[in-house]
Specification:
Number of strands: 22
Largest sheet: 7 strands, mixed
Helix content: 25-40%
CATH superfamily of one domain: Domain of unknown function (DUF4445)
CATH topology of one domain: Nucleotidyltransferase, domain 5
Radius of gyration: 25 Å
Number of helices: 16
Strand content: 15-25%
CATH architecture of one domain: 2-Layer Sandwich
Shape: globular
Length: about 550
């Protein structure tokens, strides 16, 4: 049994940090074993929101300052924090292990607000937004189950018009911001908690939809402004809910074993379309939204729920949904055999986040892959990932940054100061919260963009080097990305200039279309399975040329 030590936590609040006789007034006295890191202590007492990198020290968001009794910094902390920060007692809660009684302060690391994109720029021809029909009161609930954010929409089953939207940060992030951290958490026994966290979000979204539908019923109005409620006195009936997410997120939602997703050969327990009921999805959850009526008159828990099929351990239902929304699905196997073998033009879908998922199709074949991009495209507490791309392109243009990714002095040592620093209260006084874009940030971006660019080229080669007519950028990163900046740093090849289109939240749009077509019998489940199975999934780690291309594209610049 290791020794217990006393830890005094100074509350991170201007008033509570006031001093009296040299000691902080607002504080919490805790004890823990000296063999443990600070992270479980802070999590257990609600003093920190979560282990954003799963306890690997990657994100740098769990910073604490030792006011007394600072332990020696670990090697990882020396690489993550500046020497002056270490001298001032700053450490990472996920790795530091205090050995004696100490006093700490939890440092609030302001995280850039993550925009949750629900817009879809490319509207399917199947959606009739100009419908003049009245009394449209049947809805599809679409869910984009993202690693970082969860977005839900209530959409008219016939017109596609959005009746209501609900968005929330994915609460699973307390167990890590990436899927590997959450897979490990599930393997360590937190699988049921991870499932319940996401189910809670979806139930809150359904509760909002129900409340607003009941309000509409009371007012006797519909989306088109007509004064009509149906014969049952409610303003809408639900046909089904469809959920699209990456393979790991869908497995966690369904309570499936995710251990095989975290080790070679990376085989999912289930890849096919899931057709279940709300009762199965929300098993063990006590909440039940009042006011959601099923189109067939059934109870809420009878609601059909579809979970989009996956293509591989790394290319999930969100990509399947996006491809479906964009009309990029390869034809059925029987149709492929009948088509001409002549070279066709191709389209490329790229969805960038902590994982970069890509799919290329020429209308006959489809090849998909994914590559680990890390947190560079997600951003940090100072900048969003798209801001990093834009700033890197600007530094290249000004000659402050060379193509190898090295900043000239004094920026190499100090970093590039980000404009817009604000005065913030710390320990009862105002200090300048200056933010810097540093050499390590550029290296992180270089590694992420090299992995994605290598993946793009390998997909293109595997497809036979067709002319790429259209590049669709999906998700929030693609929605806000400056394409010229992306070309300037080499994230996208120069020949794609003029062919790139921000597609918005294709996962959410595809979830709506899949739900609508499945429950409306416009799409046969077996046909969807066949199309999904046609996709050729490649593992970049097994490709000889990946390492060579990765090293080639580490350099910055248009090419």
């Amino acid at each position: 049994m290791s020794e217990h030590i006393k830890i005094t936590v100074v509350m991170n609040d201007e008033k509570l940090n006031a001093q009296k006789d040299g000691e902080p007034v607002g504080k919490m006295m805790l004890t823990q074993e000296s063999a443990l890191t600070l992270m479980p202590l802070l999590l257990g007492n609600g003093l920190m929101d979560g282990s954003f990198c799963g306890g690997r020290g990657d994100c740098g968001r769990c910073v604490v300052q030792f006011l007394k009794g600072a332990p020696l910094p670990t090697g990882l902390e020396r690489s993550r924090l500046e020497p002056e920060e270490l001298r001032q007692g700053y450490r990472l809660a996920c790795v530091t292990r205090p050995k004696a009684d100490c006093t700490i302060r939890v440092v609030e690391t302001a995280q850039a607000e993550t925009p949750i994109v629900t817009d879809m720029n490319l509207v399917s021809a199947n959606i009739n937004l100009d419908s003049q029909q009245k009394n449209l009161s049947c809805y599809i609930i679409a869910v984009d189950l993202g690693t970082t954010t969860i977005a839900m929409q209530l959409r008219d089953a016939e017109t596609g018009a959005v009746a209501d939207t609900y968005c929330e940060m994915n609460p699973q992030r307390k167990y890590g911001t990436d899927v590997l951290a959450r897979i490990q958490a599930a393997v360590d026994g937190q699988g049921e908690e991870l499932r319940r966290l996401v189910c809670g979000v979806i139930l809150r979204g359904l509760g909002q939809f129900a409340k607003n539908l009941l309000k509409r019923a009371d007012e006797g109005t519909l989306l088109d402004g007509s004064s009509h409620v149906n014969e049952n006195g409610n303003a809408g009936k639900i046909l089904c809910m469809c959920i699209a997410g990456n393979t790991a997120m869908e497995h966690l939602l369904l309570g499936l074993d995710v251990s095989s997703l975290g080790r070679a050969p990376f085989v999912p327990v289930e890849k096919g379309l899931q057709n279940i009921t709300a009762a199965r999805l929300f098993e063990g959850m006590e909440e039940q939204p009042e006011g959601l009526h099923m189109a067939d008159g059934g109870a809420f828990f009878d609601m059909p729920v579809y979970v989009a099929p996956c293509m591989s351990a790394f290319v999930g239902g969100d990509i399947v949904a996006g491809l479906y929304a964009l009309g990029l699905f390869a034809a059925k196997a029987s149709e492929v055999r009948e088509k001409s073998k002549k070279v066709r033009h191709a389209a490329l879908l790229i969805d960038l986040g902590t994982n970069g998922e890509m799919a290329i199709t020429d209308g006959q074949r489809m090849v998909v892959t994914a590559t680990a991009a890390g947190p560079a495209f997600e951003g940090d507490g100072t900048m969003l990932g798209t801001d990093r791309i834009a700033l890197t392109a600007q530094l290249l243009r000004r000659g402050i940054l060379d193509e190898t990714g090295l900043l000239e002095e004094p920026y190499f040592t100090e970093g590039v100061r980000i404009e817009g620093a604000k005065e913030v209260p710390v320990a009862g006084r105002q200090i300048k919260n200056e933010c810097y874009f540093k050499q390590k940030d550029i290296r992180s971006l270089q590694m992420a963009k090299a992995a994605v660019r290598a993946g793009e080229e390998i997909l293109w080669e595997e497809m036979g080097r067709p002319r790429i007519e259209k590049v669709f950028l999906a998700g929030g990163f693609g929605y806000y990305l400056d394409v010229e900046a992306a070309v300037a740093v080499g994230l996208l090849p120069a020949h794609m200039r003029g062919r790139v289109e921000a597609a918005g939240n294709t996962s959410l749009a595809g979830a709506y279309e899949l739900g609508r077509d499945l429950c409306g019998n416009r799409l046969d489940a077996a046909s969807l399975e066949e199309r999904t199975c046609l996709a050729e999934s490649i593992n970049l780690a097994e490709m000889e040329q990946f390492e060579l291309l990765y090293l080639k594209y580490m350099n910055l610049g248009e090419n």
